[in-house]
Amino acid sequence: MSIITQSITKADREARYLNPSELTAIHDFYQTGRERLRIANILSSHETQIVEQGSRRFWERCPITPSNCGNPVYQASCLRDQSWYVRLVTYAVVVGDIEPIADSGIRGAKRMYSSLGVPLNNLVSCMSCLKEAALAILTVEDAAVVAPYFDYLIQGLR
Q1: For the chain, what are the domain ranges?
Q2: Whole-angstrom Cα distance, residue 50 to residue 65?
Q3: How confident is the model at residue 34 (pLDDT cuts 50, 70, 90)?
Q4: What is the pTM of this model?
Q5: Residue 64: CB partners within 8 Å, gap ≥ 6?
Q6: How far is CA 134 from CA 21, 58, 121, 150, in A?
Q7: Are 55 and 82 in contact (CB under 8 A)?
Q8: Is the pLDDT of residue 45 over 70?
Q9: CA distance linking residue 17 with residue 142, whole number of Å
């Protein structure tokens, strides 16, 4: 839940106006909005590169995996899923919150991958490789904004 939604929900539940610290937090959120959108744009426009490099790293580290068995359907599914995770991270960057990752990126994905027989350790390794590829295209400052979202995703999939 974004800082805006959190603040309004809390104030409404307590039947009060937003207090000065909540207003300051919302103001700060808006002040950093341009930067978050710029970073999300970088990730979005380099999605193919991030996924290709991340996949290559993953397959080097885990050469024996269904997505690297020579079956083009498995490989395409893996690349599609990796692209989806990069997209979830961009959503999280835009809203400044983990909620987009938490809801479908972790809870739903763990159940889905477990039911498909995909080892979660492989998924964690793959997300680490995507993180490395994404951070490699960012400045140190931008990487510091993005890394916690990948870290949250990786920790949640363990």
Answers
A1: 1-31, 34-157
A2: 20
A3: very high
A4: 0.87
A5: none
A6: 34, 14, 20, 9
A7: yes
A8: yes
A9: 34
The per-residue DSSP string of the chain comes to: --HHHHHHHHHHHTT-PPPHHHHHHHHHHHHTHHHHHHHHHHHHHTHHHHHHHHHHHHHHH--SSGGGSS-HHHHHHHHHHHHHHHHHHHHHHHHTSSHHIIIIIIIIHHHHHHHHT--HHHHHHHHHHHHHHHHHTS-HHHHHHHHHHHHHHHHHH-
Q: Name the CATH topology of 34-157.
A: Globin-like (1.10.490)
Tokens of 119: 């080892």
Q: How far apart are the first and last CA of the chain?
A: 23
Amino acid at 43: L
Computed on alpha carbons and rounded to an integer, the radius of gyration of the chain in Å comes to 18
Q: What is the pLDDT of residues 116-137, one digit of tens each?
A: 888 889 999 999 999 999 999 9
Q: Which two tokens stand for residue 138?
A: 């960012």
Question: At residue 69, does pLDDT exceed 80?
Answer: no
Q: Which residue has the tokens 């009060």?
A: 16
